Amino acid sequence: MDNKLDEFSKEFQAKAIGVMLHDKKFMDQAQDIIDAAHFESKAHEWIVEKVLWFFREYRQLPTLEVFKVELDKEKENKVLYSSVISSLKSIVTNTDEDAVYIKDQYLTFCKNQALKNAIVKSVDLLALGEYDAIKRQIDKAIRAGVERNYGLIWREEIQRFTRQNARDVVP
């Protein structure tokens, strides 16, 4: 198994990026194991790097305006600039009829890559006799990509619970 998504078509890779741009729950689940280097195209790599940066920084999915601002910083690299624009156009116009399948396959690929990387790192740790570090590496890889459920986040949802019409108040 290679470290890149070359076993999948470029269209699949574009749809995977589309899922990242539209599904916040998926990004929350997979942000730790998504790696821009998995993508074959430099334009796709650039887009994924920006999606990950923006999501980690602001806990939101980036809009096209974010890409426009970030892409303006890359105007001197005309090849990357034009390929990112064409890639974004195709990604945005894609339909998500098979989004569930794309998410499942891409998440499986990322989980396998995380486990593979942990095993490779474990070889060096095994030579050093660092068994606890090996266990931590493997445990971290196994937990990678697991759905996160934070429960109730009061800071973000306090308005919903304190609105007058949200609760029955006895007069």
Summarize the structure.
This protein is mostly helical and 171 residues long. It has helices spanning 10-22, 24-30, 42-58, 64-72, 78-93, 99-128, 131-143, 154-162.
Walk me through the structure.
- The protein is mainly α.
- It contains eight helices and no strands.
- Helix 1 crosses helix 6 and helix 3 packs across helix 5.
Keywords, separated by commas or semicolons:
mainly alpha, 171 residues, 67% helix
Question: Unreliable segments (pLDDT under 50, ≥5 consecutive)?
Answer: none
Percent helix range: 55-70%
Please trace the helix and strand order, writing H or E for each element.
HHHHHHHH
Choose one word for the global shape. globular
Proportion of beta-strand residues = under 5%
What is the C-alpha radius of gyration, as a whole number of Å?
A: 20 Å
**Largest sheet geometry:** none
Q: Give me the oligomer status.
A: single chain
Number of strands: 0
Number of helices: 8
On the 0-100 scale, what is the average pLDDT? 86
Question: Could you tell me how far the N terminus lies from the C terminus, measured between alpha carbons in angstroms?
Answer: 66 Å
Structural class: mainly alpha
Topology readout:
Elements: H1 10-22, H2 24-30, H3 42-58, H4 64-72, H5 78-93, H6 99-128, H7 131-143, H8 154-162
Helix pairs in contact: 1-3, 1-5, 1-6, 3-5, 6-7
